Amino acid sequence: MIRRVSTAAAFLIAAAPAWAQPAPPPAAAPAGTTLTLSAHADKTLPRDRLQAELRVEAVDANAARVQADVNRRMAAALAHAKTVTGVTVETTGYSVYPERDAKGNTIRWHGSQALHLTSSDFPALLNLVGVLQGQGLAMSNLAAELSPATAKAAQDELTDTALKDIRARADRIAATLGTHVERYSELRVGNASVPPVPVRFMAANVAASGSMPPPVAAAGDATVSVSVDATVLLALVH
User: Fold this and answer.
1) CATH number belonging to the domain at 31-48+146-201+219-238, selected among 3.30.110.170, 3.20.20.100, 3.40.930.10, 3.30.420.40
2) What is this structure's pTM?
């Protein structure tokens, strides 16, 4: 019995160092004062780009005729749109689908395809829209936006402005407290986001001659804004 107790005790003594590893020391808290600041900068700019979406639509009892009609009319619209300088042209949303009655029988077929136009030349795009409407295309959307280059330049400018404001405020507060800016421990800079804004337009009937006046659009202004949040460590002046 004594031998058994001694063996168990020896085992416990041998194993104890493995169980009693010292805990790592806690991370030292940064010396000084932590200051949290926010800055916001914005700028109003005229929207400088238009987007227009038009559709070719066809209806027929025969699916092949619907598809052929959509293809023919879109090819003609594309051929004309690509001759207009400064307008970016893209086709989207091609579909041919059946319309069915209550019994599931196909009544007729519908076909459509969208033509997306983008340009910073407002008169060129609007005149093109008028021509395409005269060819039977229906306009489903007209929107104004800031071009990516304009939005990026404004974002960079506003970011610089907000960061300078953060730095100036941090320096003023530090001086008032008798400290100095040790470092910026955290910085969050938001990205500017300026979504397109729909432009109202009136749908009109195509004249007998097939011509249609171009739509009128007032793009208006957009406000670009950037926010910056900073965590600043202030330390005593030595």
Assistant:
1) 3.30.110.170
2) 0.73
